[in-house]
Amino acid sequence: MSDFDAVELTTGEDPSAAIIWLHGLGADGHDFEPIVPHVLWEGAPAIRFVFPNAPVRPVTLNGGMPMRAWYDILSIDSDRGHDQDGISESVSQVESFVAREQRRGIAPERVIIAGFSQGGAIAIQFALTYPHRLAGLIALSTYLLNADSLGKNVHPVNSGLPVFVGHGNMDPVVPFSMGEKVVNELRSMGYAVDWHSYPMAHAVNPEEIRDIQLWLRQQLD
């Protein structure tokens, strides 16, 4: 797989900001592509949306079936059965995308990291430990990885990073309590968390998309 295997969409010439958005387990980079026009606002700067594709790998939880996954999920428990090598590889992949944006003229402080479900878990892991200031973090219907040690690995340059967290209160895949844990843990670390719950399952809905648009405008306008 190419280091830069991704779907890209740029909303205008010479983008001044980028959003790197990680899909969920079994999806691909096209999954959130349709959301782009709905999170823009009148007068928004040109933004490059980058939707990386996770590598295809066997997923133990799904009987070893190969699918796009940021890491193998070994079991369902409070830590989602960590595959540390896969987590590290995916965090490194996100770092390579941020570095590429920097080479293309967009500094890290104009880059937002977003992710849904398994992609959200990697987004959190990356954003909190990355050694350069980012513009913000969007974590949707997701959970914490390495919760017991994450606080020790947070990089101070991203302390207080703006964070949007959204979760459905009828989510049968990632329980709502896991989303609440994300919020509580991040707030205990000093992060400015904008927390939203929605009457939905493991998905996004129009209300959440509108809230993301408002939050993005605050960070990038």
Keywords:
Rossmann fold, seven-stranded mixed beta sheet, two-stranded antiparallel ribbon, 6 helices, 9 strands
What does this structure look like?
By secondary structure, this protein is of the alpha/beta class. The chain has one domain: Alpha/Beta hydrolase fold, catalytic domain (Rossmann fold, 3-Layer(aba) Sandwich), CATH 3.40.50. The chain has six helices and nine strands; from the N terminus they run E-E-H-E-E-E-H-E-H-E-H-E-H-E-H. The strands form two sheets. The chain has a seven-stranded mixed beta sheet with strand order 1-3-2-6-7-8-9, with helices on both faces. Strand 2 (17-22), helix 1 (36-39) and strand 3 form a beta-alpha-beta unit. The relative contact order is 0.15.
Taking the alpha carbons of the first and last residues, their distance comes to 34 Å
The string of secondary-structure elements, in order, is: EEHEEEHEHEHEHEH
**Share of residues in helices:** 25-40%
- Overall mean pLDDT score? 93
What summary fits the major beta sheet?
Answer: 7 strands, mixed
According to DSSP, the number of beta strands is 9
CATH-derived topology = Rossmann fold
Q: Mind telling me the CATH class?
A: Alpha Beta
CATH superfamily: Alpha/Beta hydrolase fold, catalytic domain
> What is the domain total for the residues?
1
Architecture (CATH level 2) name: 3-Layer(aba) Sandwich
Query: How do the strands of the widest beta sheet line up side by side?
Result: 1-3-2-6-7-8-9
Describe how the helices and strands are arranged.
Blueprint: E1 6-10, E2 17-22, H1 36-39, E3 47-52, E4 56-59, E5 65-68, H2 84-103, E6 111-116, H3 118-129, E7 136-140, H4 147-153, E8 162-168, H5 176-188, E9 192-198, H6 206-220
Parallel strand pairs: 2-3, 2-6, 6-7, 7-8, 8-9
Antiparallel strand pairs: 1-3, 4-5
